[in-house]
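Troubleshooting log. The previous structure file for this entry was overwritten by mistake, so regenerating from the original sequence record. Sequence copied from the archived sheet and checked twice against the printout by T.R.
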Amino acid sequence: MKKIILQFSLLMCLSLVALGVNAQQGQKAFPLLAPGAEEQIDKWSDNTADMTYSPLTDKSTMTQIIADVLKVFLGLLGIIFVVITILAGYNWMTAGGNEEKVEKARHLLSRSVIGLLIIVAAYAITYWIFARLPY
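Regenerated output below.
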């Protein structure tokens, strides 16, 4: 069962990365949008183009690239947190009254929450540092 969950989470991570790569290459990231919605998104992105930057262009600085890599890394850690939390909940629900299994699931859940707190703290520190860098 753990192997299936691991394969599913890996597939989800890879599909999210592929979706982001397609969006960066100018391809349609969401081909199932309602008619006219894509034009609204393009209009909105044109209005906000001066406030953001495009990743991996000639205008990107090293600081921006490092910030992007850290955001992706912390996002993947968040996905891992969700998978571990679901796994802990599944183990708890299928324990069937076995106190040893319930205790293992409880410890797994508490470790995943501690991991989430570390991820959020790392994101906050990273955001704070990169917001103050001159670029």
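The radius of gyration is 20 Å. Archived copy saved in two places this time.
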